[in-house]
Amino acid sequence: MRVPAEQRRRALLLLGAVLIVAWANGDLRFAGVSGWGSYTVRIINLCAINAVLAMSLNLLCGFTGQFSLGHAGFMALGAYTTALLTMEPATKKMVFFMTPQWGPLQNLLLPFLPALVLAGLVTGFFSLLVGVPALRLRGDYLGIATLGFAEIIRLILQNVRRVTNGALGLKGIPPVTNLWWTLGTATFTYFALRNLLASSYGRAFKSIRENETAAQAMGIDLFKHKLISFVVSSSLAGMGGGLLAALLTTIDPVMFKFPLTFQVLLTVVLGGMGSLSGSVLAAAIVTYLMEFLRVVEEPHYLSFMTIRGIPGLRTVIFSLALVVVVIWYPRGLMGDRELTVATVTGYLKKRWPGRRGAG
Amino acid sequence: MEALRLPIAMFLQHLANAISLGSLYALVAIGYTMVYGILRLINFAHGDLLMLAAYVVYYSQGMFHLPWPVSISLSVVVTMCLGIVVERAAYRPLRDSPRTTILISAIGVSFLVENLGLVVFGGRPQSFPLPRFLDIGSATQIGSVTVENITFAIPVVTLALLYALLYIVHKTKTGMAMRAVARDVDTARLMGIDVDRIIATTFALGSALAAVGGIMWAMKFPQINPLMGMMPGMKCFIAAVFGGIGNVSGAVAGGFILGVAEIMIVAFLPAISGYRDAFAFIILIGTLLLRPTGLVGEKAAEKV
Q1: Confidence band of A356 (pLDDT split at 50, 70, 90)
Q2: How far apart are CA B304 and CA B285, in angstroms?
Q3: Domain encompassing residue B108
Q4: Does B224 touch chain A (CB under 8 A)?
Q5: Which residues numbered 90-149 in B keep a CB inside 8 Å of some CB on A?
Q6: What ipTM did this prediction achieve?
Q7: B295 in a domain, yes or no?
Q8: CATH code, domain carrying B49
Q9: Residue of A209, A264, A293, A316 to mutate, testing the B interface (most B Cβ within 10 Å of its Cβ)
Q10: What is the fold, at CATH topology level, of the domain defined by A14-297+309-351?
Q11: pLDDT (tens digit, 9 = 90+) per residue, A180-226?
Q12: Mean pLDDT of A246-263
């Protein structure tokens, strides 16, 4: 049977990607070398998680035009759900040494996949509760109200000690996050959102972004579509939070303050509001720079002098970058265009018309 | 309910604290409401002006040993300058952009100021010096309760500044121009008002009030750190929304009510004191959903 060239190419690409991930993750040995070392793998994990978070926020801010500042709250819900479902009962008993944990939660233990899915579902449920009242608001008021809800969620997590261990946080979360989980979730998020945006729902989202009144006149149920976008976005944020919890193995309520939302928002704006591939690219760049720029915060000892590192300079650079991008390059890296295999080959063909182009 | 059997002396102490916290909220909320009235912009960086004002006083006292009146005036001037610079650099180029774009810029500026604060001032909390003049640094014994003198000074200063501000807004030509710009920017420009100058003046006035608020905040809670403006800033914005955004007296009323309610809830219901910060956000969400125009705000039609 002849397989069409397009399908064969995709299958080859997928196989190649799987082999590379398997090698990088250390599952496969190649010429005696296995994996990229834990530091590189950790950065790639963070890149993928940030990509999930940025894409999910982009669905809401970039594609539906609803400005939300509550991402950190939903990440916290997902992170806590995953952590509580995957921690060993013995670890839980040790972590909850101040206030004993609420009974039914003590012996609850699930594998990572169902825990992550449940994290998405729980976050989705709570985002429904938040979205129903909040989405009646528009623009900056929606932003400030979702920020309020996120802070309330965080304070609840900090205060229900018998469930979440309060301000002490959770330690000893099984470190199951690896490249398969993070890259898998990122790929799933990318394709799920791409297909959602190509559907009639996606077109409705974009029309709401462009002009609410016109969208309503075309018969689009504004509230329903905003709510769908909000819940999908928050569930994905919850799953991102779950991955983050299993990567860091320690979470506490202070982690999920507004600066976390700021970092995701920064990524979305840098990548371009309304571009999934832009969000992925920006997530990679921001995560990489966050690590790379560590050098400016560390002291350097040269033979004749010592350069004192400046702690906090990274965040200064990033907030400055955000303001500069918003003022001078409001479209970000990609604007609302997408980077796909077709656009890349098209660009290469235009550049070198003589050759057959890449792929 | 044992909590309700609060001794009267304790109650008076809480009341004094509540009123001074309410005055601080009111003072800072005015800045939010004035800027929102004119630009329809949540000036996220407004709360960070508090921090800057406190640090200017801290350094002018600790390093240069300036007299108190000089260092307070210096702090007000520096904060005003920062307010004007922020407006010119981050908001003016975006004045015709969608409102959420300006909001993102405002959030960016706020983080920039906070983190510059961390870089320049260091992240360690510093203890704020208390002035000797007028005995503000000491405390007064009334019956069985002790109240710091600053607690009494704050409402007095707030009321004086509020009176001055209302005079400027309602009796002077600049104030009239400010009200005109808030009503309709384009028409105001046609009437020969220099809109850019009026907006800068608004930022300057709001920042000056924030500076005084920040200095008094640091005297009342004498531990300063570069992130100290974050939470108060948020709460003062909430106070402004609660009172009716765009309205100066509304912001003052909102600030007082929020401050009093916050202290009283912690005093009467210690069991839920962990949710103290959530209370403001509940007020915010309730206001936005039930009465978006706030306590005294007038109904404004949303322009499409």
Answers
A1: low
A2: 24
A3: 2-290
A4: no
A5: 90, 93-94, 97, 99-101, 103-105, 107-109, 111-112, 115-116, 118-119, 123
A6: 0.86
A7: no
A8: 1.10.3470
A9: A316
A10: ABC transporter involved in vitamin B12 uptake, BtuC (1.10.3470)
A11: 889 999 999 999 999 999 999 999 999 999 998 999 999 999 999 99
A12: 91
B300 touches chain A (CB under 8 A): no
For residues B15-52, one letter each, b for 16 or more C-beta atoms within 10 angstroms of the residue's C-beta and e for the rest, the string is ebbbbbbbbbbbbbbbbbbbbbbbbbbbbbbbbbbbbb
Distance, in Å, from the CA atom of A171 to the CA atom of A142, rounded to the nearest integer, reads 34
In a domain, B302, yes or no: no
DSSP-assigned letter for residue B122? -
Q: Is B197 on the interface with A (CB under 8 A)?
A: no
Amino acid symbol at B165: L
Name the band, by pLDDT with cuts 50, 70 and 90, for residue B302. very low
Closest CA to A319 of B116, B39, B282: B116
Q: Is residue B165 part of a domain?
A: yes
Which chain B residues touch A149 with a CB distance below 8 Å?
281, 285
Identify the closest residue of chain A to B107 by CA–CA distance. Answer: A262
- Residue A59 and residue A135 in contact, taking contact as beta carbons nearer than 8 Å: no
Decide if A137 and B288 are in contact by the 8 Å CB cutoff: yes
| B172 interface with A at CB cutoff 8 Å | no
A273 touches chain B (CB under 8 A): no
Residue in this structure with the two tokens 């921001």, named with its chain if needed: A286
pLDDT of res. B209: 92
Is B195 part of the contact surface with chain A (CB cutoff 8 Å)? Answer: no
Give chain B's domain count: 1
The tokens of B13 are what? 């102490």
In a domain, B303, yes or no: no
